[in-house]
Amino acid sequence: MTTVRIALDTRAYDIRIGSGLLGAPDTFAAVASPKGTALIVTNTTVAPLYAARLEQSLQLHFARVLRCTLPDGEEYKTWETLNQIFTDLLRHQCDRKTTLFALGGGVIGDMTGFAAASYMRGVPFVQVPTTLLAQVDSSVGGKTAINHPLGKNMIGAFYQPRLVVADLSTLHTLPPRELSAGLAEVIKHAAIADVDFLAWLEAHIDALRAQDAAALAEAVARCCRIKAKVVAQDETETGLRAILNFGHTFGHAIEAGMGYGNWLHGEAVGAGMVLAADLSVRLGLLAPADAERLARLIARAGLPVRAPDLGAERWADWMQVDKKTEGGEVRFVLLNGLGRPVLRAAPMAEAQASIAAHLQPSQPQAVPSA
């Protein structure tokens, strides 16, 4: 097992990375509450696979272990679904000795964290991510949120978990499309922070897609270390942490513009990174060869490298609804060379040119194959 520490003073916590952790009761001993309640929040896809295993481990540490099963999909990351968690908490008379366990991907993690931040003005929660995307990114750092029809992740809170448990065994049940979506966030970490890691990914991308255990363990650990370093310096995204949104201004526009759930988050980020790299080239920050290198790796990961045609006006509207927008200016995370991210405003005309150069030649509803 590998442990990565998130250094946040009194809110510090560990990320535990390894295989078979869900079924090992000692994994959760640090968050035990012998007189308290554990509420596992999961979804209809993950529950049949892993919920019973987690329940069995938690029964040694909590007086009660309950389960809340939500529908699966980005389109359910809403107030209505969030309210189902609150309903279960209230129905079972859960108090401040209740700990929520987010068993699932990024949607479950975000909603469970937001519920924990809100219920009784804050109860503990633990991230138990079961997708590659969640293990390398969304479960780490305390960002919690739900979507709104007018913007992704615009309603939420910064609220840190007490523990993150990344059981690599759960990745073996991921469909290939979901695994590729997670690789988008892996590539993002390398592109913004570690050129040596980028070269490692180029050498191991086929092994990662084949779910090689050693390659996955290395990728998850390296991403968590990168994110831990950034979060420790800027917990609430007042500056440095924004670099973790490389590709996301374009990507969030794709997700919202296409309708949540039609493109997976990682697929949208994959195409978004290609557009952000192209925009970096147009602004004289990045060498064209480096942008092409990044696009080749994204394609090899099984991700889209072309964007849907939302229409110029809709693209502009969706990009305006972004957390990095200030004073009406859309700010992008760009690359001033590989491994050197920079946050800056860019003319919308240049962003539109990058989009136009990378539009899908086919139906916008179809996610293109690499």
Q: What structural class results from the helix and strand content? A: alpha/beta
Q: In CATH, what is the class of the largest domain?
A: Mainly Alpha
Strand tally is 11
CATH superfamily of the largest domain: Dehydroquinate synthase-like - alpha domain
Description of the molecule:
The protein is α/β, with parallel strands linked by helices and 370 residues long. It folds into 2 domains: 2-173, Rossmann fold, CATH 3.40.50; 183-356, Dehydroquinate synthase-like, alpha domain (Up-down Bundle). Helices cover 43% and strands 19% of the residues. Strands 1-2-9-6-5-3-4 form a 7-stranded mixed sheet, with helices on both faces. The protein has a two-stranded antiparallel sheet with strand order 7-8. Strand 10 and strand 11 form a beta hairpin. Helix 4 (132-138) packs parallel to helix 5, helix 8 (248-258) packs across helix 9 (265-282) and helix 8 packs across helix 11. Residues 363-370 have low confidence and may be disordered.
